[in-house]
Structures are given as structure tokens and as C-alpha cells.
Amino acid sequence: MKAMASIAPVYQLANPTRFMALAARIVPWLAGLTVVLFAIGLYMAFFIAPPDYQQGETVRIMYIHVPAAWLAMMCYGVIAISSFGYLVFRHPMADVSAKAAAPIGAVFTALALITGSLWGKPMWGTYWVWDARLTSVLILFFLYLGLMALRNGVEDETLAGKLTAVMALVGTVILPIIKFSVDWWNTLHQPASVMRIGGPTIHPSILWPLLVMALAFTLLFVVLHLKAMGNEVLRRRVVALRMRAVQRAANLEPQGPAREAAE
Amino acid sequence: MSPFLALVRRDLALAFREGGAVGTTLGFYLMVVTMLPLGLGPDLNLLSRIAPGVLWVALLLAALLSLDRIFLNDYEEGALEVMALGPMPLELVAAAKSLAHWISTGIPLALITPALGLLLNLDIDAYGVLVLTMLAGTPAISFIGAIGGALTLGLRRGGLLLSLLVLPLYVPTLIFGISSVNAVLMGPGGFAASFLILCALSLASLVLAPIAAAAAIRMQLQ
Q1: How far apart, in whole angstroms, are the C-alpha atoms of residue A45 and residue A39?
Q2: A139: nearest CB among B165, B171, B219
Q3: What distances in angstroms separate CA A116 from CA A91, A245, A257, B101, one per listed residue?
Q4: Do B216 and A163 touch (CB under 8 A)?
Q5: How many of the other CB atoms lie within 10 Å of CB of A234?
Q6: How many Å separate Cα A140 from the centre of its chain?
Q7: Is B185:B130 a contact under the CB 8 Å cutoff?
Q8: H-only helix segments in A154-255
Q9: By C-alpha distance, which of B37, B57, B55, B61 is closest to B47?
Q10: In angstroms, rounded to a whole number, what is the distance separating the alpha carbons of residues B187 and B195?
Q11: What is the pLDDT of residue A13?
């Protein structure tokens, strides 16, 4: 019974109307908080955090790069969980969540790749190396594109959602490969230094701005995701209303012999 | 004869008798390998260095073009629906059809590779190991490809989308296929690790991919 009580709110959110009401109430607050956190985080990153003794000022790229890369993976996690939920419980809101998260995830992945290559040019001497971490993140980007292309390619929207969910679950194998690529292969990309057993290995003066930025990015994702889900619900309602209008118009029109007579 | 084997035999018969289904794939493989030296210039040292990679990539592309053969014809003529209604689980149907695709595409492509290796001045030591890695890696290509084929069944212009969906999933197979060849060519050790991971990829896709493919087919038959 306790378990039932704890998942009850999730069930309530599955009702699109309730979801929309709740989203409308919390999105402005979350958006405000995101702006504040970004202001604090960027200020800390650019003015308070010290330049690295080896990397100099370029270390500041990391405050965008690392959170973007985390979010790129978290976003795929959200898609995978939503897809699983959609395939098992057949609830449309899970599909809405998976659909809304895909473009956001693609943008975060692109951001991580672009900032990474901008950092790589002065540090490694090249914009791109075929390193395991870089390659696996690039594959993640292609997976996002594939998910969006598959959804666009199938005309029936319900079927598109289901097929995309299957593809998303198949693609989940990439997540552990990305996470552990720096441990499994001896790569140019540095190994995990924040989320590791035994605590972070970076100095607090760099860690704190990074964590604030990570929180800001996460909230940004939540805001964008909730907003995109709301838009998708509205879009589906418009489609449904349009279908109903067409049907009504078809019913009102004189049919058969009467119609021929009218013409 | 068990229904599984019967289905494999049927698909093989269709693949080999249907005008040039296998031949076209081999022809495409040959064409890609022929085009590359024309583009890169006939420097034999360069060609021999990149030959394993070129052959693997060309094999992937050739196999990719044949993936829609796995389910599409049966889907369009309704045979797939009959199989789905039959007593054999759809997962096994998908596995049988992927297996037939491997036998009719993966094995011929791997076996013709030495002939193409001659065109690229492939190192003589590499022939055996290259064919071995291709034989070990092509099951993953057929079985993972079956997921893509199943997902894009009902689509117009599904072929392009199929490659966009499936190629990212082929990356691990390609990487470990190449790295086990390179381990033999370049230095001592490392072959076993890469080769075993390649085999693991094939075995895992053998088990998991038919489940995903069957799920995708079921959705489209409803």
C-alpha cells in the first residue's frame, strides 16, 4: 500500500490536464531559478574560479562542456525510461516525454561536442581525435538524430511513438559505453574526476562553480522539457480538435442522393 | 524438420534463387573497393596499410544495402503476418530470418574478401585473420540490422532511414573487428581481447536483437 501511495502522484501527472496545470504553476519558478543559477554559476566560472596552472583560461570552457555532456547522457536516460514506460504502460504522456526530450538531448550533445573540440584545439592541438569517449558521444548524437528521423518518418503517430521507443531502448547500450570508455580504453580524454568512487579529484575552487553550473543545466533541461511536453500536448489537442471538426463537417454535409441533388 | 530450420531454408532458397539478391550485394562490395583506390591514388603502400579498414567499411555498406531483404518482401506480400499468427514465436521467426541473412550475405561477403584484398595489396598475414574477424563479426551485422529492417518496414523511403538508424549501432563491431586485425598486423598480443569482444557482440546481438525486431514487427502488424 505504501508503494502505491508513493507512486500515486506519478499516476496523477499522467493525466495531461493535471500535468499541464502543474507545469504551468512550477515552470515560471523553475525558469527564474535557472536564470539565477546560471548568473551565479557563470560569474563563479568566469571571475571567481582560478585559471588552471596548465590549461590557463581555457579551463573555463569546462564549466559549459562538462554539464552539457552530463545532460546529454541524462537526457538519453530520460528518453529510455519514458520509452520503457510507454511500451509497458502504454501511456501517451510517456511518449510525449520521450518525444520532447530528443531534440533537447541532441542540442546538449552537440554543445558538448562543440565546446569539447574548441577546448581540444589549444590543449590537444586538434579539434577532433578519434578517441573512445569522443567517438561514443558522437554516436550518441547520431542516435538522437536517428530517433527524431524515425519519428518523423512514420506517419501514424502512435506507431511512430512505439517504434521510436523500441529504437531508444536498443540504443541504451551506448550509455555504459560512454561512461566507462575512459576506463576501458586508454584514451586522450581525461578519466572521471567528479563522479568517482573515493570522491572528486578536483580542487573545491573549481568543483563548486562546476556543480552550480551542473545544477543550472539540469534545471534548464527540466524547464525546457516541461515546456516542450506542454507544447506537444497542446499540439496533439489541436490535431484531435481538427479531426473532430473535419468529422463534424463531413456529417453535416448532405450525403448520397441528397448531395447529388444539391449539386 | 523443425519450423525454425524450415524457415531458414526457405529464406536461403529465396535469397539464392531470387535473381541476383546475393550477387548484387557482392557486386556492390566489389564496386566500393574498386572506387577507393581510384579516389586515393594507386600508392600500394598506402593501400596496403588501409586495406583492412576499407574492406570492413565496404562490407558494412554492402550488408546495409541488403538489410531490407530480411523482412520487407514478406511484409509486403503478407507472409510475415502468417508467420506472426503461426505457432512459432515471432522472436524465433526474426532470428531465423536474420540467420538466413547472415548465411546468404555475411558469409559470402567474408569469403570473397581475400579476392578483394589482392586489389588493395593487403598484407599476406592479414588474409586469414581478416576473414576470421569478418566471419565472427557479420552475425552482429545481420542481427542488429534486422532491428533496423523491422523498424522501417512500413516506411516509404525506409532505406535511407534504415542506414541512419543502424550504422551507429555497427560502430562497436567495426571498431573491434579492425582492432583485432591490427593487433595481429602491428604488434604482439591484444588479438584475443578484441576478438573475444567481437564474438561477444555477435552472441549478444544473436540473443537480444530478435526480441527488439519481433516487438517492432508486432507493432506494425496490428
Answers
A1: 10
A2: B171
A3: 38, 50, 70, 40
A4: yes
A5: 12
A6: 12
A7: no
A8: 157-171, 174-184, 204-252
A9: B37
A10: 15
A11: 62
The grid cell for B17 is 534463387
B127 vs B104: CA distance, rounded Å: 21
Residue in chain A closest to B208 (alpha carbons) equals: A170
Cell numbers at residue B92, please? Answer: 524465433
Chain B's closest residue to A131, CA to CA, is: B175
Q: Where are the domains of chain A?
A: 16-252
> Where does the pLDDT of residue A197 fall: very low under 50, low under 70, confident under 90, or very high at 90 and above?
low
What gap in Å lies between CA A156 and CA A152, rounded to an integer? 10
Task: Indicate if the pLDDT at residue A176 is higher than 70.
Answer: yes
CA nearest to A136 within chain B: B171
CA distance A118 to B71: 44
Residue spans of alpha helices (H) in chain B: 3-17, 21-40, 44-66, 72-77, 79-85, 90-101, 107-119, 126-151, 158-186, 191-221
- Band of residue A4 on the pLDDT scale cut at 50, 70, 90: very low
CA distance A158 to chain B (A): 10
Q: Three-state DSSP class for A56? A: strand
Q: Which of A167-176, B105-114, B137-146, B151-160 has the lowest mean pLDDT?
A: B151-160
Residues of B with CB under 8 A from a CB of A: 147, 151-152, 154-155, 157-158, 161, 164-165, 167-169, 171-172, 175, 212, 215-216, 219-220
Whole-complex ipTM: 0.85
pLDDT, tens digit, 9 for 90 and up, residues A123-152:
888 888 887 788 888 989 999 999 999 998
Question: For position A11, what pLDDT does the model report?
Answer: 59
Give the N- to C-terminal CA distance of chain A in Å, as an integer: 65
Distance CA B118, CA B135 (A): 19
Chain A residues with CB inside 8 Å of B172's CB?
Answer: 177
Name residue, grid cell 550475405.
B105
Partners of residue A169 in chain B, C-beta under 8 Å: 212
Upper half-sphere CA count for residue B114 (Cβ side, 13 Å): 11
Per-position DSSP letters for A64-81, written without gaps between them: HHHHHHHHHHHHHHHHHH
Interchain pair A153, B147: CB under 8 A: no
Q: What is the pLDDT of residues B174-191, one digit of tens each?
A: 988 988 888 888 777 778
